[in-house]
Write a structure and sequence with these properties.
By secondary structure, the chain is α/β, with parallel strands linked by helices. Helices cover 43% and strands 18% of the residues. It contains twelve helices and ten strands. The chain has helices at 32-35, 43-65, 84-101, 110-117, 119-122, 163-173, 180-188, 215-230, 237-262, 278-291, 300-303, 308-320, and strands at residues 2-7, 12-19, 22-30, 72-80, 105-109, 129-134, 139-144, 153-157, 267-271, 294-296. Helix 6 (163-173) packs parallel to helix 8, helix 7 crosses helix 9 (237-262) and helix 9 (237-262) packs parallel to helix 10. The longest helix is centred in the C-terminal third of the chain and has 26 residues, at 237-262. It binds adenosine-5'-triphosphate, magnesium ion and fe (iii) ion. Magnesium ion binds at residues 10-12, 136, 304-305.
């Protein structure tokens, strides 16, 4: 069947249509610009924007796929984690569609969606694979087996800020526009990545191997900017951005490749908004090639939040014969990542 995926956990309203692992069409509306003057996502504004965008986005995804409402055979929806009000809008819409069309509903974990995004471009994920999720809210290393059936093994996480959050906050200090990640990436192009010796947090021999920390890096970047300002010097922004980006990319890829090696895993998948970063991509390629590890990174459009990735998880669940999620399901804003689905398929 055709699976409609709905995503509304943060500031993107996404709808995507997937059948048998193939993306038929998707659409995304973002309220990013409405949050820009606040320097971060305002939950109330995000929720209201989802109410506004839900129907047009579903309509547009259907149009792009050349499908009609009646072609939808199942609905998958993000139930968490994310902003409570934002999640509720998507879930209410998804329930209404499933109920009125008489098709099953599948509650999906947002991060599993990020993982599954890559299957739409590169086909089924090998079992096992290592996944580095790097986004505005998460920095995690996961050992993934069968998304529809197996628990996801959480190897490590950030102990403070997420990598995307670090980019966003430093960009603000540097006076770059929101969202900061793409702005840092652009600015870094003219800079020298070795200009500033920013720290490489949690990479010492006694540090946890798979955990991350980015708040110290953020502070170091702020202090560097402050020192220039105190001396009334113009900020060498390009050098600062390039050096910060280098430090983040270095730590992320070093730990991800080590995790692959230590667990004997031959494939690394890098997903989430920060996977769009040009230096993260380049360094991951270089280090994976040197270590004989296959690297998979979804195309930019599927890296950031979208409905297609949620549909991809729903499609895997449908094909694995998963139990649908009851229509009285609620959102879970801080859902732990144990399984991709609220109702995974039992292992025989
Ligand atoms: P989560 O998925 O954890 O709930 P989110 O929805 O904010 O969080 P995404 O939409 O996946 O995350 O990604 C947004 C983040 O990606 C932002 O922090 C943004 O700055 C960052 N980002 C996007 N493009 C780039 C880039 N080229 N370089 C660095 N960071 C980037
Ligand atoms: Mg977002
Ligand atoms: Fe996300």
């Amino acid at each position: 069947p055709v699976v409609l995926g709905i995503e509304s956990s943060c500031d993107e309203t996404g709808a995507g249509l997937v059948r048998d692992g193939h993306l038929l069409g998707h659409a995304v509306a973002s309220s990013m610009d409405e949050h820009a003057r606040f320097g971060g996502v305002v939950p109330e504004i995000a929720a209201r924007a989802h109410v506004h965008s839900f129907t047009p986005v579903v309509r547009e995804a259907l149009d792009r796929a050349g499908l009609r409402m009646g072609d939808i055979g199942a609905v998958a929806v993000t139930t968490g984690p994310g902003l409570s009000g934002a999640l509720q809008v998507g879930l209410a819409g998804a329930k209404t569609l499933a109920f009125s069309l008489g098709v099953p509903l599948y509650g999906v974990h947002h991060l599993a969606g990020h993982v599954a995004a890559d299957t739409l471009e590169h086909g089924p994920l090998p079992d096992p694979c290592m996944v580095l999720i790097v986004s505005g809210g998460h920095t995690s290393l996961l050992l993934v087996r069968d998304l529809a059936r197996d628990p996801i093994l959480h190897l490590g996480d950030t102990i403070d800020d997420a990598a995307g959050e670090c980019f966003d906050k430093v960009a603000r200090v540097f006076g770059l526009p929101y969202p900061g990640g793409p702005a840092i990436d652009r600015t870094a192009r003219q800079g020298d990545p070795d200009a500033v010796a920013f720290p490489r947090p949690l990479t010492g021999p006694r540090d946890p191997r798979y955990d991350f920390s980015f708040s110290g890096l953020k502070t170091a970047a702020a202090r560097w900017a402050e020192q220039h300002r105190l001396r009334d010097e113009e900020l060498p922004l390009a050098d600062g951005a390039a050096s910060l980006q280098e430090a983040v990319a270095d730590v992320l890829t070093r730990k991800a490749v080590a995790a692959c090696r230590e667990h004997g895993v031959g494939t690394l998948v890098v997903v989430g908004g920060v996977a769009a970063n040009s230096r993260v991509r380049a360094l991951a390629e270089e280090r994976c090639r040197a270590a004989g590890i296959a690297l998979r990174v979804p195309p930019l459009k599927l890296c950031t939040d979208n409905g297609a990735m949620i549909a991809a998880v729903g499609d895997l669940l449908v094909r694995a014969g998963a139990e649908p999620t009851p229509l009285d399901v609620s959102i879970d804003p801080s859902a732990p990542l144990e399984y991709a689905a609220l109702h995974p398929v039992a292992r025989a």
